[in-house]
Structures are given as structure tokens and as C-alpha cells.
What we know:
The protein is of the alpha/beta class. It has two domains: 3-160 and 383-397, 3-Layer(aba) Sandwich (Rossmann fold); 173-381, 3-Layer(aba) Sandwich (Rossmann fold), CATH 3.40.50. It is 49% helix and 16% strand. The chain has helices spanning 11-27, 39-44, 60-65, 67-84, 95-107, 127-134, 146-150, 162-166, 173-179, 198-218, 231-244, 258-262, 277-283, 293-300, 313-322, 330-335, 350-362, 364-381, 385-393, and strands at 3-8, 32-37, 46-51, 88-92, 111-115, 137-140, 156-158, 189-193, 223-228, 269-274, 286-290, 305-309, 342-344. The strands form two sheets. It has a seven-stranded parallel sheet, sandwiched between helices. Helix 4 packs parallel to helix 5 (95-107) and helix 10 crosses helix 11 (231-244).
Amino acid sequence: MTRIALVAGEASGDLLAAHLIEALKRRLPGAEFVGIGGPKMQRAGCDTWWPAETLAVRGYAEVLRHYRRIAGVRRELLRRLLRERPDVFIGVDAPDFNLWLETRLKRAGIRTVHYVSPSVWAWRGGRVKHIARAVDRLLALFPFEPPLFAKAGVEVSYVGHPLADVLPLDVSRPAARELLGLPEAARPVFALLPGSRQSEVGYMAGLFIQTAARLRERFPSAIFLVPLATRETRNLFEAELWQQGVQDWLLEEPPLSATDVAVGRSGSVMKLLFGHAQDALAACDAALVASGTATLEAALLKAPMVITYRMSKWSWRLMKRMRYQPWVGLPNILAGRFVVPEFLQDDATPENLAQALGNVVLDAGVRMRLDNLFTDMHRQLRQDTAEKAAAAVLPLLGNAETAA
């Protein structure tokens, strides 16, 4: 039986790995999948030895605080993989965790794949040589990445991005608003995405709420949609609402209908959603998005956006020294220029963010240009990613019996 081990450390990696598992199962119906992953990987048939949340820590200072726990998991995982010897190991993103594993597994004769190019084009370019030693093949999501690694002799395949395959090219905002029970009346809708990790929401919940307060002054009838990935992140955000003294904004019942307006809901309201990030982005006039994969998701859903991020001071100092580019948001990186505003760390103030978001909402020309640009990006990234990734992995499996 073919056995494939995978490690994914966060929500975006869980999605990538789940799609790859499904594509591989179509070609290898008897294959077994094991490793570290989240709920999507589990539903796809992966036996997860540890949950993906084990690795979901961002920023140098945060990683250092959790280093002993994470290093212990990694050592135990390495021992188990060397003992059970899968046919191939696929590290999905999480480069600091996975490249360490891949180096040692490859040295032991186990074939290795790294899925998602580490962002050497943004910072820490010295990792290219390390990657060349660690992996038999690299799967790249973006078209500008393969040439960077080919120079170092890395076998690399451009596979596109799975979100571009899954999300529609054309987005209907009226349909998205109807799905979320939003009123038909012309009220500005803002999506607030403060991150999927508890550490991110802990740093940014207050900033996002204060930004909403300033937007409310400019747009008194605004609706704020806040999709949160887990019960823990929702609790953190709700606690910050109470601390800021704006808990009365919360709309407890899901629908926001004419009845709500009739009983006094004509002013600003805030809806906290369990998940539904894509629905919120599809429904909004503008989005405030924490830097990360969510910025690409917003672009593919043609949502005008402002990108922001805050982290600990120590993490920021280290990151800033190692940056190669002026951009951190994926839409700007793909465009090679600033197409949407970015406000990071000390520049990430409620005043700056509210001003930029308000300007986007009021400028129809900017929104149209972004829609066209994001549509072009979408077409370029739509590559049937899971099938291309599976095709790149299969040659490493040797004589594995594939589906007819």
C-alpha cells in the first residue's frame, strides 16, 4: 500500500493538503495518508497524528515562546516517520518546521516534496540553498517563483493556486448579501478579517474595532461583517468589543432585515460570523484584511481592500531587517506594485485604516480598476492546481500502482 505523509500547520495549508489528497486518491485509490493536519485534511481521509493548530504560531517572538513544545512534536514526528518510512513526505507550507524534517528525511532516503514555495522573494533568500538540500521537488503557487529556484538546481513545478480554481471568476455581491441576510438598502458593508490565529486576533482585534468606530462616524449606517475561524478567536474578539465599550453594536440574530431597521437597527451594526470569510468578502464594499493568504482570497473575490498587520516589536524588528520588497500583501506582490494600500505596525492606526477604507468605498473608478486587475490575476492563477500537484508527486512514488 502506498503511504503518503503530510504536514500542514494552518488553515491555508489544511486546504491545500486536502485538495491534494483528494487528487492523489483519484489516481491512487488505495493510498494511505497520515501526518499533521486540520479538519479539511481529516475529511479528505488523512489520519492526523497531531492537529494543525499545534503549529499555528506566527512571528519570531511567538515561536520562541512555544519553541520547546513545537520542537518536541517535530522530533517525535521525525522518529515515527523514520520508523514507518512513508513512500513520500509532503510538507505543506510551514517552512521552518517542514524544511528541517525534509532535510533529515531526504538524508534517510525518503523522497520529499515541499508544497508552497517559501517566500524567498520577500525575505530570507539564503534559504534557497537549504531548500535545494531538503527537497526532491518544490510545488510553487505563483508564476514568478520557478525561475528563482531553478538557478539553485531545485526541481520545481508551477501548479497555480487552488483558491483560483475554487472561487468563481464573476462574483455577485447582491447574491452574497442575500445569503448573509443583509438588507437590500444601499448601506456600506465592510468586511473585517483580523486573522485566523489566536495570536493574530489578540494583536489586531482592538485595532479593527477602533477602525470600525471611525468608519461609523463617516458612514453612520455601515454594516461590519467579522468572520472568525474558531470559537477561541471569536471569544477574543468579543472580549475586545466589551473592553472598547461597543458591544451594543453586535447583532445577535443572524438576519438583518427590514424588521431590524424598524426596531432601531438603522445605525451601524456588527455581525460576527463563524467562518463565512468568503461570503463576507463577496458581500462587502471594502475589506480590512490582515496580511496573509486572506489578501489573495479577497483579490480573487474582487473585494477592494486595505491590508494591515501588527506583531510583537521584536518580531517586527527582525522581519523588517530581512525584507527584500516594499510589499507584504499578495495582490501587491503579484502586481509588482502597490495596487492596494498597506499599513503595517506603527503605521497601522485606526485613522489611517479608516481613511483608506472610506476612500475606496467612495471611489467607483478605483473599485472598477481593482475588479479588472483582480480578474486578470484570477485567470493567471487558475491552473487546476490539485491535479497539477498530484501529477508532480506521482513520479516520486516509483512503482506505486495508479488508478486506471
